[in-house]
Every structure is written in structure tokens, then in C-alpha cells.
């Protein structure tokens, strides 16, 4: 196996179609091939390879990790959110497909000879739902609004409590299973609150 020098890490960039989890794996593989790679260089180049609009980039900027181990732990936590968001986006797209097909059928019109004209898109291509960007973590937002009367309580977590990972706690569900920042139910409810005019003070400028 060809060994590389630390400068090689400065060329690593997260690809547009690459998940955070895959970027972590690829970075670790490349770092393993570096001779005498300093942890500080690895930490700096890992963050440097992230897009500046990435939530993980913002977290590593606002709360810098002290060690490389802490950095990877934070990155792994955000990869869970990224996986959850990707799965939710895919499910939303699949759910929208029947509606889009019905709309396409309604858009088909007949020409003067009774034949069907070619379908023309209206209003541009369909868009997929994305989460609002906030100035603070969604866990911190929950801490500030958890006593508000308009906050809906989620359904109880399923599964055997004795078998749950007690190292992970969700403030929204008030139980062990996952981290608050990774809670899909809280993300979804927070989006609903924003649409109804709540929690708008936490929205990042230009994020709407």
C-alpha cells in the first residue's frame, strides 16, 4: 500500500452526492495511509472538506472538538441525522409521486383534431421538502419552548425500555433511544410550528 503525506488530506472534499457517513469512512481510510498524521491536521482537514452550508460544518465551527476522537463522535452523531433526513426525503418523494402523476394526467389536453398534445410542465420541476436552517441546535430550541402550550407531545417510544441504548436520550420523547438532535418526530413537529408562525426567532437569516 502506498503511503501518503499529510498534505494529501487537504485535497479531500465531501462530494455533493456523498452522505456524511460515507465521507467519514473515506476520510478514515485516507488518513490510515498517511505517515505520521497529526490529529490536529486531521481534524482541520476533515472540517475543511465539508461544505460550509453543512450542519456538521456549523457545529464544528461553533463547538470545536478538543480531540479527533470527539470530532469523529460528533460526525457519527450527525451522520444519523443525515441518514434520517435522506430517508425522510426519499419517503416524501415517493409519497408525492401519485399526486404528480395525477397532475400530469390533468395537464394533458386535446388539440383541435381530438388528439392529445404533448404534456407541458407547469410551474417548473417539483420540489422536495427540506428542513429549515436554525441559528441554534434543535435540541436547544426544544429546551426553550418545551413548556409552551402549543407544543404537542409525541407518541411514546416503541420497544422494550430495558433493551434501549441508555447513552442516548431524547428530550422530546423523554426517553432513551436516540439523541434529541436526531429525533425525526421533533424535526417534523418543529417544521409544523414554523409554518404556523412559532419558533421563527430561531430561523437563520435567509433560510426560509
Would you kindly provide a written description of the structure presented here, covering whatever features stand out?
The protein folds into two domains: about 70 residues, Non-ribosomal Peptide Synthetase Peptidyl Carrier Protein, Chain A; about 80 residues, no CATH class. The protein is about 45% helix and about 0% strand. The protein is built from six helices and two strands. A two-stranded antiparallel ribbon has the order 1-2. The protein is an all-alpha fold and about 210 residues long.
Class from secondary-structure proportions:
mainly alpha
Could you estimate the helical fraction of the residues in percent?
A: 40-55%
Spans with pLDDT under 50 lasting ≥5 residues? 107-128
Give the N-to-C terminal Cα separation.
48 Å
Order of helices and strands: HHHHHEEH
Largest sheet: 2 strands, antiparallel
Strand order of the largest sheet: 1-2
Tally of separate helices: 6
Summed up, the domain count is: 2
The radius of gyration computed from the alpha-carbon positions, rounded to a whole number of angstroms, is 22 Å
> What would you call the shape?
globular
Number of strands: 2
Q: Can you give the mean pLDDT? A: 78
Tell me the fraction of residues in β-strands, as a range.
under 5%
Short description:
With 208 residues, the protein is an all-alpha fold.
Outline the fold blueprint:
Elements: H1 20-32, H2 39-48, H3 55-62, H4 68-107, H5 138-145, E1 169-170, E2 175-176, H6 184-195
Antiparallel strand pairs: 1-2
Amino acid at each position: 500500500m502506498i503511503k501518503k503525506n499529510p498534505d494529501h488530506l487537504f485535497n479531500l472534499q465531501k462530494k455533493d452526492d456523498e452522505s456524511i457517513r460515507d465521507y467519514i469512512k473515506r476520510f478514515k481510510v485516507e488518513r490510515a495511509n498517511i505517515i505520521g498524521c497529526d490529529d490536529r491536521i486531521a481534524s482541520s482537514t476533515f472540517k475543511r472538506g465539508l461544505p460550509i452550508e453543512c450542519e456538521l460544518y456549523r457545529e464544528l465551527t461553533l463547538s470545536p472538538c478538543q480531540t479527533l476522537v470527539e470530532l469523529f463522535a460528533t460526525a457519527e452523531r450527525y451522520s444519523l441525522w443525515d441518514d434520517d433526513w435522506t430517508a425522510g426525503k426519499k419517503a416524501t418523494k415517493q409519497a408525492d409521486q401519485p399526486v404528480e402523476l395525477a397532475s400530469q394526467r390533468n395537464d394533458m389536453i386535446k388539440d383541435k383534431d381530438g388528439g392529445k398534445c404533448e404534456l407541458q410542465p407547469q410551474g417548473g420541476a417539483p420540489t422536495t421538502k427540506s428542513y429549515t436552517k436554525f441559528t441554534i441546535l434543535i435540541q436547544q430550541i426544544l429546551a426553550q419552548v418545551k413548556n409552551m402550550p402549543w407544543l404537542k407531545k409525541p407518541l411514546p417510544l416503541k420497544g422494550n425500555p430495558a433493551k434501549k441504548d441508555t447513552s442516548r436520550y431524547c428530550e422530546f420523547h423523554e426517553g432513551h433511544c436516540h439523541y434529541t438532535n436526531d429525533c425525526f418526530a421533533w424535526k417534523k413537529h418543529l417544521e409544523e410550528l414554523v409554518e404556523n408562525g412559532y419558533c421563527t426567532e430561531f430561523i437563520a437569516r435567509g433560510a426560509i
